[in-house]
Design a protein that fits this description.
Layout lengths: L1 E5 L9 E5 L2 E4 L11 H4 L11 E2 L2 E2 L2 H13 L6 E5 L10 H9 L3 E3 L5 H11 L7 H4 L4 E5 L3 H4 L4 H4 L3 E5 L5 H5 L2 E3 L6 H14 L5 H7 L3 H8 L4 H8 L3 H11 L4 E5 L9 H14 L9 E3 L18 E3 L10 E5 L3 H4 L3 H9 L3 E6 L4 H5 L2 E4 L8 E4 L6 E4 L11 H11 L7 H9 L2 E3 L5 E3 L34 E4 L6 E2 L2 E2 L4 E4 L10 E5 L4 E8 L7 E3 L12 E4 L6 E2 L4 E6 L1
Parallel strand pairs: 6-14, 7-13, 8-9, 8-11, 9-10, 11-12, 14-15, 15-16, 21-27, 24-26
Antiparallel strand pairs: 1-2, 2-3, 4-5, 4-16, 17-18, 19-20, 21-30, 22-23, 25-26, 25-30, 28-29
This protein binds ligand MGD (2 copies), iron/sulfur cluster (SF4) and molybdenum atom.
Length: 578
Amino acid sequence: MNSVTACPLDCYDACTVIYDNGRLKGIKEGQTQGFLCPHLNHYDKYEQIHMPRYKGKEISLDEALLKLKEILNSSKSSEVLHYRGHGNFALMQEVTDHFFASFGATLIDGSLCDGAGEAGIIEGRGSNLNMPLSEIQKSEVVIIWGRNPHTTSSHLLPIIKDKTIIVIDPVKTKIAKMASLHIQIKPHGDLFLAMLLSRFLHIENSCDEEFLEKYASEYEEYYELTQNIRIKATLNEIDVTLGQIGHLLELIKNKKVAIVCGVGIQKYSDGADVMRAIDAFAAFLGLFGKEGCGVAYLGNSRDKITSPFNTKAKRVSKINTEFKNYKTVFIQGSNPLSQMPDSLRVKKSIKEVENLVYFGLYENETSEAADLVIPAKNFLNKEDIRTSYSHHGIMFMPKVSESEFGISEYDLSAYMCKEFNIELQTEEFYLQYFKNFALQNEDGSWQVKMREETPYKEGLDTDDGEFHFLEEFDQNINLKEKLFLITPKSATSLNSQFKRDNSVYLHSSHGLHEDEIVTITSAKGSVKLKVKIDNDVRDDCVLIYSGTKGVNNLTSSKHSLDGKNAIFQEEKVEILSV
Ligand SMILES: Nc1nc2c(c(=O)[nH]1)N[C@H]1C(S)=C(S)[C@@H](COP(=O)(O)OP(=O)(O)OC[C@H]3O[C@@H](n4cnc5c(=O)[nH]c(N)nc54)[C@H](O)[C@@H]3O)O[C@H]1N2
Ligand SMILES: Nc1nc2c(c(=O)[nH]1)N[C@H]1C(S)=C(S)[C@@H](COP(=O)(O)OP(=O)(O)OC[C@H]3O[C@@H](n4cnc5c(=O)[nH]c(N)nc54)[C@H](O)[C@@H]3O)O[C@H]1N2
Ligand code: SF4
Ligand SMILES: [Mo]
């Protein structure tokens, strides 16, 4: 049988997928152009957990559900924490929030991902409406800023292949090698670069004055703020030349420009300011509300969609969660022992939890530590529906095959709601609720109703309809001393799912040998890894991919100043030969 569904993964592309007798394929039409990516091409190679277990002993699913009920019965609701990640990005995954919120448990808030950048966007524009792929298609120049599309959003590539490409990234990524201009900036130098670009645009009289007068009238004050930056010293510091700035401004002159940002720019305490300074440059260029122009980031995938579930609950941050404050912790769609910052802290805190429950697909650090393991059904074996953070599509995900293992989020919630007398509608009810937000396109695909192709046509979403510029910024970012940790996404894993990396990537100038074991240390901890020599990485950087075991021993669980986000690249590191 040939059925259409969608990839469930936390990924920009949110691809439509054809399930053809056990094989997964992309559709020829539209954004997928017939290809998927390594994760889905090899989806059936990754062994799922089949049997539930309690304290290391395999049990049946019925026994596991009974155990979960017992555990919850023996805990006060204030002693229960529900920690949910986005291992599966679809909308029905939230049904467990409904059960736990109604039960009186604590839920999480904050972000390990894009929260700082999003906060910066909202401060400037009043909302996070994304420039969708369909608009990027109409642009002439694309500035890829802290995003690695060959790895994390490969379906962007066919869209931008004939455009002028500019890349700003400390790593010489594949897209950087294809670009007309690559600024291999020092990590965390982006705020200064963005402010200097605005300043030079103003000096050259190349700003979109009509836009600024109408929608960003404080621009002269912002220009003054940019004058606090000492040009020569700062350019030296961030390793950018005046020639590169001139070249960039020349390439975008009188062109339709899309600035395509990724999470790489904002893994710092002032990540919100970095994003806001990039947005300010976009405002100076008058990119908002214009066809084929704008800023793309991780948009709000739930924009114009409300939740049918009860999600009102006490919440604690998912960045520095004190697991030990809870008797029972239910972890779903996440591997916090690897993916949260400051792993040594997480390990200590999780160890003290009396009942650690893991509800997921794969074995990992968290399933190993769990008392009760409940296997989930994968996306092929359950009903769901999803949206995207980079396009306006809404994709139906019907069950396309049966499996005898695992349980869906809905079925688990239905069981628990029944046992604890909590009201829950049928699965069809919720699926239909979400489908009511869908509008069919001429080509048969569906998109979320009321989403604008070109957002901000009538001005920004702030109180006064104007863009709000930064009024101050941190001039004392530490760009010297020790080495920068860069921790981006790996091509073979999706964070800690699938094939995880196990090396540290270093420039040859450190004098180390391929496959030599080194210890990388920070103020938080250390990790031993095998060296891979990679001259695409700057000589002041230590690159360890997300999902590599132990990488978060090095990172801090402090929050970004705005946006309640993790700051995976704030800690400096050193290399010790073993
Ligand atoms: N294959 C694969 N795809 C994925 C994922 C995965 O794990 N694997 N994860 C998914 C998820 S959860 C997310 S959030 C997205 C994220 O996807 P992206 O937004 O692409 O994020 P990253 O790979 O973390 O970083 C992107 C780029 O930022 C650069 N960078 C690092 N520091 C800086 C800096 O200070 N300044 C600048 N200008 N650039 C910097 C890195 O070198 C990297 O090339 O990808 C999704 N897609
Ligand atoms: N050093 C470093 N750390 C990082 C990052 C980084 O770039 N560098 N990136 C951060 C970012 S952007 C993110 S988004 C987080 C991601 O961190 P996590 O949310 O922990 O994501 P994953 O590691 O992908 O783990 C997802 C888990 O979901 C489970 N799962 C998959 N599908 C389903 C399903 O259908 N149902 C259920 N119940 N479970 C399922 C799988 O078993 C898997 O273990 O990591 C963050 N951590
Ligand atoms: S590119 Fe992203 S959405 Fe598409 S199949 Fe791969 S992981 Fe899924
Ligand atoms: Mo993410």
